Amino acid sequence: MQANTFRRSAVALAIAAAFAVGVGVADRVGLHTASAANAVAPAVAPTPVVSTGAALPAAALPDFSGLVERYGAAVVNISVVQGTKTSAHVPRTQMPDEEDLPPFLRNLPFQFQSPDQPQERGPTRGVGSGFIVSPDGIILTNAHVVDGADEVSVKLTDKREFTAKVLGSDKTTDIAVLKIAANDLPYVKIGDPKATRVGEWVVAIGQPFGFENTVTAGIVSAKSRSLPGDSYVPFIQTDAAVNPGNSGGPLFNLKGEVIGVNSQIFSRSGGFQGLAFAVPIDVAMQVKDEIQHDGKVSHGRLGIAIQEVNQALAQNFGLKSPSGALVASVEKGSPGDKAGLRPGDVILKLDGKEISRSSDLPPMVSSLKAGSKVTLEVWRDGSSTELSTNVGELKDTTVAMGGDKESLGKAKLGIAVRPLTADEKHGTDLSDGLVVQDVAGAAERAGVRPGDVIVAVNNTPVKSVEQLRSLVDKAGKTVALLVQRDEARIFIPITLG
Predict the structure, then answer these.
(1) pTM of the entire structure?
(2) Is 9 a catalytic residue?
(3) Fewer Cβ neighbours under 10 Å: the N or C end of the chain?
(4) Least confident of 59-68, 236-245, 417-426
């Protein structure tokens, strides 16, 4: 479970319980209970069904015990600890009396904090799941399970516990790769999600609500689901029970092969309601390979906005059926712009692969290497044409100047930064700069804060993460950062670690 989940306010929980409907990571939801009366229907004689086709073969209920016995030992329990600041200050706002609150927020088990009164906080703990993919201790889990963690512990089914190192994580796909110092470990068999059929039985193993190595089963409900905010992952939808703590655990088929990484659920109540989503294992393994080989993950981009083609649009554009991805806008100077794409084009194929729905395109592009050449089949003005371009790179990832949280504090500078977005550049009137995402060590001691924008290093304007890294490496014992904070700019001298 992601650590900051445990710090959600009771107000947010109350509002979510009353109104929220949405997709949440499988270990970011609250625990609710519900009861329902059991009704017994009167016995009714079955009605014969007349079929003109061949009868479907009878299917016996599967026995999952052999699968669990053989591969269950490769599933691990993950515990994380995230340290927090010793005090927090509440903004100077008037604390309302309870009678002034809406009725559904009254009599809740929380207290308002007095203005600027320090609130002591201890370390936050969370749980999640993972699974071993190689006998030398490589483990896959969700990125949100270990995000911001100061300590990550892995517990095996034989009760051995290890401190894990986070080799890397990718928030775009929500996959993280861990390593523990052990050998000859049990590991899973990797399957092919593309060969999985809707209706097949699947098994999830994890630690929901902390109950270690819990087995649940269901069927594949759908494939290639696109979720809000997660358009780069073609999720596998299943009705196997997934709850808080299941995040990062494996989804098995009946052959004992892992076909997905359990990640999210859709719920009105906060608990499982029959809709769970898993990252296809081929996506997760590609992330693992890139992290182990390159130390980072690269995602392709075209720089276009797309929308679904419905029946009315298909008729308007002269298409035989509503399929493909309709180009709504093209970013100037992007790979899509260089290819000659225009608003109103309908992308039908990418490198010969058909695009049935608009949601098919983003994961296909994301899986491509930056710089690789692609061919697009486009429907334009009543006929198809081919366009080619080189794929760009998705830049909305955070780059740490030192790696994980522990090494961040030991690094020379001790910050994690990302480039400014287009909206941020417009909002701050900055043409370049790097946003501080996290800070530790030397930079934190000097007074650098998350949210600061690094404009220059030793009076040299900073335009990229690579340039920042180079300038710091060439610096002596100190470095001067020009930082924009709110509406002001200040120089912050840092004694490098």
Answers:
(1) 0.63
(2) no
(3) C
(4) 417-426
